[in-house]
Specification:
By secondary structure, this protein is mainly alpha-helical. It has seven helices and two strands. The chain starts with a helix and ends in a 5-residue tail after the last strand.
Amino acid sequence: MHARAIDDAQVRLLDLRQDEVQDTTLAGVALSASLVSTVVCPPLVVPLFVGGLAMGMLGVRAIWRRWDLVDRLADDRDAYAIPQVREYAARDACMKRRLQYAALTRSWADGPDAALAGLCDQLEALARELEDATLELDPSAALACRRLLTDPTVSPLFDEIRDVDELRSSIARIRAGFRPAASRS
């Protein structure tokens, strides 16, 4: 991703955020006005209510589109220059999520799938590293871990015919994202 594309994506995210705020605020105002109009001017109740619902749906659409854009951008390391993308990926690197991923990793390693039998050692090592508080996990590696363990659209773990080399490579890339934690003194 080049600098111009990053700038364009950041502007798009800001536009979508502005749409979210405007649409949901207007929806709230219209719905509140419809409630007030039940007493003041009953013929306005239905139009204001329908308008409020419509604006609410536009607000939800803007929220969804912004989330989707951030999720897609998080796959590109260059996009981490955008604060929203960096924050989105960093959530997956926190210890609470890492412990959840460690449990998921162990469930895959302990499962009855014969195709994963050769990867049990790597999966167990990944689980141990995820649980190790003395290690930091790079946000992009944490996101790759989440996708590997939970996303059936991209993870080879969910394929019926698994490519063991691809799995081994994915695990190795995630494990390469660990580094000793910076001292907090």
